[in-house]
């Protein structure tokens, strides 16, 4: 007897049966993110081996390094690219300088993103905009974003971001 026949013999409804199928070990019947043949690179790389990021990326003691030779974060070598790791947005501006700011909007705490098209920082929740130095350029936010110091190693391959 197949699994579906067995479950039907127990008198379970169709929706209940679907739930059982979805709980299968492969999750293929319901489709999972892993089905994407061309997944985008993780826009929010975490820390740990393989991420290219090591150190503290959350809280008040921000202090981490970004290994730009690591493919997970190497896009930061390109002007106009950015990543978010932990609580921090790191961007290489269209002018080629590195900036790091809190990713947490000062309005209501939603996530901000770097926009290369306007070389600014944008919160899509209510439309606040900030300069890459954190200053408010459009509300409703009224408080600047916290910024972090970014230093680049002499070989250009490592960023150090510190509070
Ligand atoms: S939370 Fe960012 S503008 Fe409201």
UniProtKB/TrEMBL annotation:
Domain of life: Bacteria
Gene Ontology molecular function terms on file: 2 iron, 2 sulfur cluster binding; metal ion binding
Alphabetically ordered keywords of this record: 2Fe-2S, Iron, Iron-sulfur, Metal-binding
Matches recorded under InterPro entries: Rieske_2Fe-2S, Rieske_2Fe-2S_sf
Keyword Disulfide bond: no
Listed Pfam families: Rieske
Protein's UniProt keywords contain Protein transport: no
PROSITE patterns named among the record's database cross-references: PROKAR_LIPOPROTEIN, RIESKE
Region listing for Disordered, in residue ranges: 32-54
Domain Rieske: 68-159
Protein name (record): Cytochrome b6-f complex iron-sulfur subunit
Natural source organism: Dyadobacter jiangsuensis
Classification lineage: Bacteria, Pseudomonadati, Bacteroidota, Cytophagia, Cytophagales
């Amino acid at each position: 007897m197949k699994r579906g026949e067995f479950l039907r013999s127990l008198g379970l409804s169709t929706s209940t049966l679907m739930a059982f199928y979805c709980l299968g070990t492969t999750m293929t019947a319901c489709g999972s993110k892993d089905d994407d043949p061309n997944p985008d690179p993780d826009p929010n790389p975490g820390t740990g081996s393989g991420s290219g990021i090591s150190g503290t990326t959350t809280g008040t003691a921000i202090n981490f390094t970004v290994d730009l030779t690591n493919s997970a974060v190497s896009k930061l070598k390109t002007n106009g690219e950015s990543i978010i790791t932990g609580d921090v947005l790191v961007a290489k501006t269209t002018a080629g300088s590195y900036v790091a700011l809190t990713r947490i909007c000062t309005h209501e705490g939603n996530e901000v993103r770097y926009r290369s098209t306007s070389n600014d920082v944008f919160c899509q929740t209510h439309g606040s905009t900030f300069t890459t130095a954190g200053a408010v350029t459009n509300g409703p936010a009224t408080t600047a974003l916290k910024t972090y110091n970014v230093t680049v190693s002499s070989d250009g391959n490592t960023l150090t971001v510190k509070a």
